[in-house]
User: What shape does this take?
Amino acid sequence: MTGNFFFADIKEKIFKSLMYFSLLSVAYIFLISLFQRSNIVTGYPSYMLIIIIYMIVFFLLKVQASKIKVGTIGEVSFVIILLSIAFLLRIFYYIFTKPLPVSDFLFYHNYAEKISKGNYLPLDKTCVIFPHRFGFPLFLGFVYFLFGPFVSTGSLFNIFISTMNIVLVYILAKMIYNPNVARVSAVLYALWPSQIMYSSTIASERLFMTLFLTAIILFMKCIEEDSKRSVLLAIICGICVALAQFIRPIAQMLLIVFLIAGIVLSHKRALKGFVKKFVFVFVFFLITMEVLGITTKDLTGITLRSSMGYNLMVGTNYYSHGMYNNEDALILSKYNYDFDKVHKESAKTAIERIRSHPLRFLNLVEEKTRIMWGDELYAISWSFEQSSNTRLLKIPFMKNMLIVVLQIYYLAILFFVFCGLSISRENKKSIVPAMVFSIHVIAYAFLEVQSRYHYPAIVCLIPIAAFGLRNLKILTSPRYLVK
Assistant: This one.
């Protein structure tokens, strides 16, 4: 009995520590976004945005958001209707703007076009240093092979994937909470302005999130079941994590999430069964990565491996605020695109920067937080501003209005996430999205940042935001406020 109580106590401490860290992090990010970033990006004072958010909350309370009668619509009908609306919104935006690929997105398009014609050789030398740049173009190249190597093909493929991800968000929220919260989650994601806009770009995040969310769902389903089917789910889960890692080398964080979350969610008597399932996830992750490595080597001549040395160096550059810069990029040619040397020397530079100026690095972390988590301007810079509709770009009001809408929606999501975390302390399953978010917060305190890099973490928090939105009445009740 003593052992059972000790095990339960350890699990409870782990769970509460992670939830409180997530709660404090969201509060910190919300305040930075509201008071340090919003005025800069929108041109409006923070108090105006506070008033708007207050009006949104007041409106939702008045109409009793938790009792919206979407429950009268069947589950399948609801999903089909929402997918149709989401798809039309994304298609309408695409037709209206038709954004052209630039930077990494242009690289993906050009490489995928080359692959669709049977040429897998690296598009440039950066593939040697960052082998994952082959991952998304390989999938996209297959799509181009089937439907034609056009920019429109890539955009429409991502629009389709973005729409289908709504189903995954719905399933995840349903598993963590209940069908009502799942419906709100799906609506929040479907109507998310930045995602409507960003889905038109040839970015790797759409497909990455499909695999990332699928892996999480399979893991949660796996630990709930005791049948032989759970082993199959664990195997597919490991494969999905590897495929996601092949596209963006941050997916391996899920192995840490699964290990800790599995311990917290498992009873002591079921712990042995969980360990067995986790071993299957881990082993098939390694097997799939090995297969992908052999395939990549055979097709491109590049060794599939990953290292964060270079990203760490960029993330500790005080003058570029932890963002990509030409100065740090010179190290690639300096060491003649040698993978080991580039990442090893980059890591040394990064460590020296932190060690030499620790206080300056701590200030840099706050600067990077503003850039990484402060706004959703990536949807403007990567999509709207790259529009092939030149007449649209000549209308300043349109861009300014979109920026305000993006920022208010984002702030509202952060607010509802905070509300959801505040009352999710009894729901152990919420540790999974909370951990994904927490690892992002910690990792990007050190690594290179861009605004769009927060997208996977916020998507995982959508179910918690929906839970907070559904329970606004609880949060504002005098009985809760007195606690």
Q: What stands out?
A: Residues 2-42 form the longest helix (41 residues). Residues 89 and 196 are 7 Å apart (CA to CA). The two ends are 32 Å apart (CA to CA). The chain has a mean pLDDT of 86.
